[in-house]
Amino acid sequence: MSEITENNVSTGWSPRIIAFFCNWCTYTAADLAGVSRMKYASNVRIIRVMCSGRIDPQFVLEAFAKGADGVLVGGCHPNDCHYVEGNYKMLRRYRLLQRMLSDMGIEPERFRLEWISAAEGDKVKHVVNDMVEKLTKLGPLALDQKQKDWDKEVQSLEDDVHAQQQEGAVAHA
Amino acid sequence: MLPQKHEPIRIGFYVCHCGVNIASMIDVEAVARYAAKLPNVAISRNYKYMCSDPGQELIQQDIADHRLNRIVVAACSPLLHEHTFRKATAAAGLNPYYFQMVNIREHNSWVHTNREEATRKAMAQVRAAIYRVPLHKPLEVKKVPINPNVLIVGGGIAGIHAALLLANAGKQVYLVEREPTVGGHMAKFDKTFPTLDCAMCVLSPKMAAVGNHPNITLWTYSEVAKVDGYVGNYKVTVRRKPRYIIEDLCTGCQECVDNCIYKEPKFPDTFNLGLSKRKPVYLPFPQAVPPVVIIDPETCIELKTGKCKKTCVEACGDRKAIDLKQKEELREIEVGTIIIATGFKTFDPRRTPYYGYGVYPNVLTSLEVERFLNASGPTGGELVLNNGQKPKRVAIVHCVGSRDENTNKWCSRVCCLYSLKLAHLIKERTEAEVYNFYIDIRAPGKSMEEFYTRVCEEGVQMIRGKVADVYPDTSNGSNGRLIVQAEDTLMSRILKVPVDMVVLSVGLEPHADTEQVRRMFNMSCSAEGWFLERHPKLAPVSTFTDGIFLAGCCQGPKDIPDSVAQAGAAAAEAFSLMDKGHIEQEPNTAYVLEEECSGCKSCIPLCPYTAISFLEDKKKAYINEALCKGCGTCVGSCPSGSIVQNLFEDEEVFREIEGLLEPVA
């Protein structure tokens, strides 16, 4: 696999990914990838939490709002959670949040949940590289542009309503 | 120094070179210069080895000289050295939780290849910590009392050794073994390499000691059914399968065996791998511990049909040790630590059909040959062909189910040497010509190479080549001989060696139920299925679950000396944890902000430890700190944001996100 690097040579842009990894499985897997000197794209920045169940939907939204192009969540495999079932709680939130994000026009590829055990250093590598590749194709999230578009949409809706009210007012008169 | 309110934040930042491990991929000086300009940073340094004594002293001196009240170190994984730096911080009088670690080695310099990008990423990581650390609160380590009892799962040589060490030190040990006797694989061996001392001679005194020790509760024919709790306070349910014998009453006289309704042994003897026969009531082997018989419900007429004359009960007489109505029992025990020593199983050579195991009667596994060579084995120590004659030519095939892309990729470590041992023993007992077919001879360790040389000098033929095929020799009618075909890679020629017997040196692999055991104890497995140690070098017998340790082959193939050494290490780890009397826990528990809690109760069913209750009088949720394990699931779910997790507060994570994503100025 060709080396994926942070800078896309042609555009100067490359995705930024915030990863939330649970302390017991995925964070440890990322440590293992390091100890095994596996190489992966440097676009990912990891935040350690004790359990994927700790990940508040607001963390994900905040990451997108602050400029992340993708958010990756890593937890223990089903049935392997150090805290019994925190990963299932995250799975539920993930499903709900994914629907909410798509309503907001954020592509599903930008938010990813992966089960990576402490022994799967190579999976960290593959998931990160794969995500970087997909997001590079997808381009920047450009949330501020999206916000402007939403504002425009809301404005035109408001204008419509306003115009209708005006018409109504004329008709009544 | 007591933390004071409104005291200005003064961060000390340190970036470690880790020799060249970090410095070769990250411009540490640039990172230090960058950090110096970030808000609240009072001092920013780079140093060759932060974890060394001078590195730690540097932090302590700076805390005193520069009135630092927050410390950030960018170095390796917090799972490795967070503890070190917290201790250093505390030694200087600062609360240890005013420290934050940045992982720029495992998560950066070791996994990236572009120095410029790695440096930029390091700066972002550092910024996240520097943004986060001002929000840190002084916290107290949680101290929890530890139960001084220990559970050892598996009664092979590793489990036995660990049990004796801990019991001798005065700890109460529960030793649980699945089979009806302790001893494990070692009890099946004849001699051990490289010293050729008799396996049972060195093992049986230890087995007997385990059976007699006042501090050891030995439960054979039992399995762990359930594990609850956490380090220091595990609650374990053990299933004691019925052996239809009251252990305390049985004297091991075996009169019941003599008087069984079956006059002759009729059923495959599992201890002898089915090479001999036994009755439905039997003693697994003469030195079994406990020296108590067992009745097999699959073959006992009474247990199957209820229509036996029960001559065994009659023979037992007044001892009344036979209880044919015995039921499975569940026993609950409380222990502080657990040692897993569940061992291995041997590779089933039916998976390599080209070697003809199960097709040709004179193709045997190495373990079967061990039983033949053993004086208490099926033939009283004679190695014979299925026609009862001694073999004249024997081939030993190395690496069956090891170092093979199609079966198991790993080297099973013991096969080379036990193959050499078997070659020596076969030659000694039968005077047969012995051919060893090997890929490489791996004989590391004390006296191993010398043993290899000795066996070669005894005239054992060593052929470097992997065996491709075993088939019947039809050249001279059906003489029962087999042809072993291999390429001698040193001579570059195909060999077809006619032999009477083929011994397959089978490799070691994890038990079939490894996955269930792993789940029950909340451990991890390597890709191969061996239980995973916490750190391959520095925590080789610890697991990722505190208070659970590994010994012997369940962690990976190893020989007897290594298993015993590891069992000693596991016992020492367990002992050091228990003897302290208490354990220190991360204060990462959650608490409810009462004034903000709306009393919606949505957190209560989420807690797997039932640590959250509802205060009916106040209509608020309440978290019992002693029960909280600090996962933070309730925190992530609280709709009003009124649960806070220490060390992982919402605001701290938000600041981290901000720091990671802010463009480098």
Highlighted features:
heterodimer, A: 173 residues, alpha/beta, Rossmann fold, 2 domains, four-stranded parallel β-sheet, 5 helices, 4 strands, disordered N terminus, B: 665 residues, five-stranded parallel β-sheet, 17 helices, 27% helix, 23% strand, globular
In words, what does this structure look like?
The complex is a heterodimer of chains A (173) and B (665). Chain A has 173 residues and is α/β, with parallel strands linked by helices. Chain A folds into 2 domains: 2-140, 3-Layer(aba) Sandwich (Rossmann fold); 142-173. Chain A has 5 helices and 4 strands; from the N terminus they run βαβαβαβαα. Chain A has helices spanning 26-35, 57-65, 86-103, 121-138, 143-172, and strands at residues 17-22, 44-49, 70-75, 111-115. Mean pLDDT of chain A is 90; it is low at 1-8. With 665 residues, chain B is of the alpha/beta class. Chain B has a 5-stranded parallel β-sheet with strand order 10-7-6-18-29, with helices on one face. A 5-stranded parallel β-sheet of chain B has the order 20-27-21-22-23. In chain B, helix 2 packs across helix 3 and helix 11 (366-373) crosses helix 12. Chains A and B meet through helix 1, strand 2, helix 2 and helix 3 of A and helix 3, helix 4, helix 5, helix 16 and helix 17 of B.
What is the rounded distance between the termini of chain A? 73 Å
Q: What is the CATH class designation of the largest domain in chain A?
A: Alpha Beta
- Helix proportion range of chain A: 40-55%
| Sheet having the most strands of chain B | 5 strands, parallel
Number of alpha- plus pi-helical segments of chain B: 17
Q: Provide the helix percentage of chain B.
A: 25-40%
- Please summarize the sheet with the most strands of chain A: 4 strands, parallel
Q: How would the global form of chain A be characterised?
A: elongated
